[in-house]
Amino acid sequence: MRVLMVAPPGAGKGTQGAVIATHFGIPHIATGDLLRDHVARRTALGRAVQAHLDKGELVPDEIVLDMVQEALTAVAATGGGYVLDGVPRNMAQARATYQIGLELGMTADVALHLKADDRELKRRLLARAALEGRSDDTEEAIEHRLRLYHELTHPIVAWYGERGILVTVDAMRPADQVGREILAALEVMSSFVDHVPEQSRRAVDLTGLGAAFGEMTTDPSR
Ligand code: ADP
Protein backbone atom coordinates (compact mmCIF):
# COMPACT_ATOMS: atom_id res chain seq x y z
CA MET A 1 0.00 0.00 0.00
CA ARG A 2 1.42 3.39 -1.01
CA VAL A 3 -0.15 6.31 0.82
CA LEU A 4 0.59 10.00 1.01
CA MET A 5 -1.10 12.32 3.46
CA VAL A 6 -2.33 15.86 2.89
CA ALA A 7 -3.44 17.48 6.11
CA PRO A 8 -3.13 20.73 8.04
CA PRO A 9 -0.84 20.91 11.07
CA GLY A 10 -2.50 19.32 14.08
CA ALA A 11 -4.83 17.06 12.07
CA GLY A 12 -2.93 13.94 13.15
CA LYS A 13 -0.64 13.11 10.21
CA GLY A 14 2.07 11.80 12.53
CA THR A 15 -0.30 9.69 14.61
CA GLN A 16 -2.27 8.24 11.71
CA GLY A 17 0.86 7.81 9.59
CA ALA A 18 2.31 5.59 12.33
CA VAL A 19 -0.95 3.63 12.61
CA ILE A 20 -1.02 2.95 8.86
CA ALA A 21 2.69 2.05 8.75
CA THR A 22 2.35 -0.44 11.61
CA HIS A 23 -0.82 -1.99 10.21
CA PHE A 24 0.58 -2.59 6.73
CA GLY A 25 4.20 -3.16 7.83
CA ILE A 26 5.50 -0.34 5.66
CA PRO A 27 7.89 2.55 6.35
CA HIS A 28 6.55 5.87 7.65
CA ILE A 29 8.47 8.69 5.97
CA ALA A 30 7.78 11.97 7.77
CA THR A 31 9.62 14.95 6.28
CA GLY A 32 9.08 17.06 9.42
CA ASP A 33 10.67 14.34 11.59
CA LEU A 34 13.58 13.95 9.17
CA LEU A 35 14.16 17.71 9.21
CA ARG A 36 13.87 17.97 13.01
CA ASP A 37 16.35 15.11 13.31
CA HIS A 38 18.84 17.07 11.20
CA VAL A 39 18.31 20.12 13.42
CA ALA A 40 18.83 18.04 16.59
CA ARG A 41 22.04 16.52 15.19
CA ARG A 42 23.23 19.96 14.05
CA THR A 43 24.10 18.72 10.57
CA ALA A 44 24.80 21.26 7.82
CA LEU A 45 21.29 20.66 6.48
CA GLY A 46 19.86 21.05 9.99
CA ARG A 47 21.58 24.39 10.45
CA ALA A 48 20.30 25.52 7.05
CA VAL A 49 16.65 24.71 7.80
CA GLN A 50 16.34 25.51 11.50
CA ALA A 51 15.14 29.09 11.04
CA HIS A 52 12.49 27.96 8.52
CA LEU A 53 11.17 25.35 10.95
CA ASP A 54 11.11 27.70 13.95
CA LYS A 55 9.08 30.31 12.03
CA GLY A 56 6.72 27.76 10.52
CA GLU A 57 8.01 28.54 7.00
CA LEU A 58 8.34 25.85 4.36
CA VAL A 59 11.90 24.76 3.74
CA PRO A 60 13.03 25.02 0.08
CA ASP A 61 11.47 22.43 -2.23
CA GLU A 62 14.84 21.02 -3.42
CA ILE A 63 15.81 20.02 0.14
CA VAL A 64 12.58 18.17 0.77
CA LEU A 65 12.47 16.60 -2.68
CA ASP A 66 16.02 15.25 -2.28
CA MET A 67 14.86 13.61 0.95
CA VAL A 68 11.82 12.12 -0.78
CA GLN A 69 13.92 10.84 -3.67
CA GLU A 70 16.37 9.21 -1.27
CA ALA A 71 13.69 7.72 0.99
CA LEU A 72 11.58 6.33 -1.86
CA THR A 73 14.63 4.87 -3.60
CA ALA A 74 15.47 3.02 -0.37
CA VAL A 75 11.85 1.87 -0.07
CA ALA A 76 11.83 0.61 -3.68
CA ALA A 77 14.47 -1.93 -2.69
CA THR A 78 12.37 -3.29 0.18
CA GLY A 79 8.95 -4.01 -1.29
CA GLY A 80 7.71 -0.58 -2.21
CA GLY A 81 4.93 0.24 0.27
CA TYR A 82 5.15 3.58 2.12
CA VAL A 83 3.34 6.28 4.04
CA LEU A 84 4.55 9.73 3.08
CA ASP A 85 3.76 12.29 5.78
CA GLY A 86 4.38 16.01 5.29
CA VAL A 87 4.98 16.02 1.58
CA PRO A 88 3.75 17.35 -0.82
CA ARG A 89 3.06 20.76 0.64
CA ASN A 90 2.60 22.75 -2.56
CA MET A 91 1.75 22.08 -6.18
CA ALA A 92 5.40 21.97 -7.32
CA GLN A 93 6.16 19.32 -4.68
CA ALA A 94 3.05 17.37 -5.69
CA ARG A 95 4.15 17.24 -9.33
CA ALA A 96 7.75 16.41 -8.42
CA THR A 97 6.70 13.67 -6.00
CA TYR A 98 4.50 12.18 -8.72
CA GLN A 99 7.46 12.28 -11.13
CA ILE A 100 9.75 10.55 -8.62
CA GLY A 101 7.05 7.93 -8.09
CA LEU A 102 6.66 7.41 -11.85
CA GLU A 103 10.40 6.93 -12.32
CA LEU A 104 10.51 4.35 -9.53
CA GLY A 105 7.26 2.70 -10.63
CA MET A 106 5.67 3.47 -7.27
CA THR A 107 3.28 6.42 -7.42
CA ALA A 108 0.84 6.74 -4.51
CA ASP A 109 -2.28 4.53 -4.47
CA VAL A 110 -4.09 6.80 -2.06
CA ALA A 111 -3.86 10.47 -1.12
CA LEU A 112 -5.32 10.62 2.35
CA HIS A 113 -6.80 13.98 3.27
CA LEU A 114 -7.40 14.55 6.98
CA LYS A 115 -9.99 17.27 7.38
CA ALA A 116 -10.37 19.43 10.49
CA ASP A 117 -11.27 23.05 11.19
CA ASP A 118 -8.77 25.71 12.23
CA ARG A 119 -10.19 26.25 15.72
CA GLU A 120 -9.75 22.59 16.62
CA LEU A 121 -6.30 22.48 14.99
CA LYS A 122 -5.13 25.51 16.97
CA ARG A 123 -6.48 24.00 20.19
CA ARG A 124 -4.60 20.75 19.58
CA LEU A 125 -1.34 22.43 18.62
CA LEU A 126 -1.38 24.69 21.68
CA ALA A 127 -2.12 21.69 23.90
CA ARG A 128 0.80 19.83 22.30
CA ALA A 129 3.05 22.87 22.80
CA ALA A 130 2.60 22.57 26.55
CA LEU A 131 3.61 18.88 26.44
CA GLU A 132 6.30 18.65 23.77
CA GLY A 133 7.66 22.17 23.39
CA ARG A 134 8.18 21.93 19.63
CA SER A 135 9.87 25.13 18.46
CA ASP A 136 7.13 25.83 15.89
CA ASP A 137 4.19 25.35 18.26
CA THR A 138 4.11 29.02 19.29
CA GLU A 139 0.90 30.92 18.60
CA GLU A 140 2.53 32.98 15.86
CA ALA A 141 4.14 30.03 14.06
CA ILE A 142 0.92 28.02 14.34
CA GLU A 143 -1.08 30.84 12.69
CA HIS A 144 1.52 31.01 9.95
CA ARG A 145 1.56 27.23 9.34
CA LEU A 146 -2.23 27.21 9.06
CA ARG A 147 -2.14 30.13 6.63
CA LEU A 148 0.44 28.35 4.47
CA TYR A 149 -1.64 25.19 4.55
CA HIS A 150 -4.72 26.99 3.20
CA GLU A 151 -2.78 28.96 0.61
CA LEU A 152 -0.34 26.38 -0.72
CA THR A 153 -1.14 22.87 0.46
CA HIS A 154 -4.91 22.61 0.40
CA PRO A 155 -5.19 23.35 -3.36
CA ILE A 156 -3.38 20.04 -4.00
CA VAL A 157 -6.37 18.15 -2.60
CA ALA A 158 -8.43 18.92 -5.71
CA TRP A 159 -5.63 17.63 -7.92
CA TYR A 160 -5.69 14.25 -6.17
CA GLY A 161 -9.47 14.30 -6.45
CA GLU A 162 -9.18 14.63 -10.23
CA ARG A 163 -6.68 11.78 -10.29
CA GLY A 164 -9.18 9.62 -8.41
CA ILE A 165 -6.84 8.64 -5.58
CA LEU A 166 -8.26 10.99 -2.94
CA VAL A 167 -9.74 9.65 0.30
CA THR A 168 -11.09 12.28 2.70
CA VAL A 169 -11.73 11.52 6.37
CA ASP A 170 -13.16 13.60 9.18
CA ALA A 171 -10.22 14.15 11.53
CA MET A 172 -12.21 16.14 14.11
CA ARG A 173 -12.94 12.98 16.10
CA PRO A 174 -10.72 11.17 18.60
CA ALA A 175 -7.56 9.66 17.08
CA ASP A 176 -8.56 6.02 17.61
CA GLN A 177 -11.87 6.49 15.76
CA VAL A 178 -10.15 8.27 12.88
CA GLY A 179 -7.52 5.54 12.77
CA ARG A 180 -10.10 2.74 12.61
CA GLU A 181 -11.91 4.46 9.76
CA ILE A 182 -8.70 5.00 7.82
CA LEU A 183 -7.58 1.38 8.20
CA ALA A 184 -11.01 0.09 7.19
CA ALA A 185 -10.97 2.24 4.05
CA LEU A 186 -7.40 1.33 3.15
CA GLU A 187 -8.05 -2.38 3.69
CA VAL A 188 -10.98 -2.27 1.27
CA MET A 189 -8.96 -0.27 -1.24
CA SER A 190 -5.84 -2.43 -0.99
CA SER A 191 -7.62 -5.26 -2.78
CA PHE A 192 -8.44 -2.95 -5.72
CA VAL A 193 -5.41 -0.74 -6.20
CA ASP A 194 -3.35 -3.28 -8.08
CA HIS A 195 -6.12 -4.07 -10.59
CA VAL A 196 -7.98 -0.82 -11.17
CA PRO A 197 -6.11 1.75 -13.28
CA GLU A 198 -5.91 5.27 -11.89
CA GLN A 199 -8.06 6.66 -14.74
CA SER A 200 -11.00 4.50 -13.63
CA ARG A 201 -10.98 5.54 -9.99
CA ARG A 202 -13.08 8.10 -8.15
CA ALA A 203 -12.39 10.16 -5.05
CA VAL A 204 -13.88 8.79 -1.81
CA ASP A 205 -15.37 11.13 0.80
CA LEU A 206 -15.87 9.48 4.20
CA THR A 207 -16.56 12.68 6.12
CA GLY A 208 -20.30 11.99 6.26
CA LEU A 209 -19.89 8.44 7.53
CA GLY A 210 -20.21 9.26 11.23
CA ALA A 211 -23.33 11.36 10.64
CA ALA A 212 -24.81 8.59 8.51
CA PHE A 213 -24.64 6.34 11.58
CA GLY A 214 -26.26 8.88 13.87
CA GLU A 215 -23.07 10.35 15.28
CA MET A 216 -24.56 13.77 15.99
CA THR A 217 -21.58 15.39 17.68
CA THR A 218 -17.89 15.76 16.94
CA ASP A 219 -17.16 16.89 20.48
CA PRO A 220 -15.75 13.86 22.36
CA SER A 221 -16.55 15.42 25.74
CA ARG A 222 -20.29 15.42 25.08
P1 ADP B 1 3.08 20.20 10.83
O1 ADP B 1 2.27 19.58 9.77
O2 ADP B 1 2.44 20.16 12.18
O3 ADP B 1 3.52 21.61 10.49
P2 ADP B 1 5.50 18.64 10.15
O4 ADP B 1 6.35 17.86 11.11
O5 ADP B 1 4.89 17.92 9.01
O6 ADP B 1 4.41 19.34 11.08
O7 ADP B 1 6.37 19.84 9.53
C1 ADP B 1 7.10 20.72 10.37
C2 ADP B 1 7.89 21.72 9.53
O8 ADP B 1 8.84 21.03 8.71
C3 ADP B 1 7.10 22.58 8.55
O9 ADP B 1 6.51 23.71 9.14
C4 ADP B 1 8.20 22.98 7.55
O10 ADP B 1 9.03 23.99 8.08
C5 ADP B 1 9.02 21.71 7.46
N1 ADP B 1 8.55 20.81 6.38
C6 ADP B 1 8.11 19.53 6.54
N2 ADP B 1 7.76 19.01 5.34
C7 ADP B 1 7.98 19.97 4.42
C8 ADP B 1 7.80 20.06 3.01
N3 ADP B 1 7.31 19.04 2.30
N4 ADP B 1 8.14 21.21 2.38
C9 ADP B 1 8.65 22.24 3.06
N5 ADP B 1 8.82 22.25 4.38
C10 ADP B 1 8.50 21.13 5.08
Describe the 3D structure.
Pathway: Purine metabolism; AMP biosynthesis via salvage pathway; AMP from ADP: step 1/1. This is Adenylate kinase. It catalyses: AMP + ATP = 2 ADP. InterPro entries: Adenylat/UMP-CMP_kin, P-loop_NTPase. The protein is an alpha/beta fold and 222 residues long. The chain is built from 10 helices and 6 strands. A 6-stranded parallel β-sheet has the order 2-3-1-4-5-6, sandwiched between helices. Helix 9 links the parallel strand 5 (166-170) and strand 6 (204-205). Helix 4 (61-76) packs parallel to helix 5 (91-104). It starts with a strand and ends in a 10-residue tail after the last helix. Adenosine-5'-diphosphate binds next to helix 2 and helix 3.
Summarize the structure.
With 222 residues, the protein is an alpha/beta fold. The protein has ten helices and six strands. It has a single domain, classed as Rossmann fold, CATH 3.40.50.300.
Global mean pLDDT: 91
What Rg is obtained from the alpha carbons, in whole angstroms?
Answer: 17 Å
Strand order of the largest sheet: 2-3-1-4-5-6
Fourth-level CATH superfamily? P-loop containing nucleotide triphosphate hydrolases
The amount of beta strand, in percent, is: 5-15%
Order of helices and strands: EHEHHHEHEHHHEHEH
Quickly name the level 1 CATH class: Alpha Beta
Largest sheet: 6 strands, parallel
- Unique bound compounds: adenosine-5'-diphosphate
Topology, number of strands: 6
Q: What distance lies between the first and last C-alpha atoms, to the nearest angstrom?
A: 36 Å
CATH architecture: 3-Layer(aba) Sandwich
Number of H- or I-type helical stretches: 10
Residue runs with pLDDT of under 50 for 5 or more positions? none
Sum up the overall morphology in one term.
globular
Structural class: alpha/beta
CATH topology-level fold name:
Rossmann fold
Helicity, as a percent range: 55-70%
What's the number of structural domains?
1
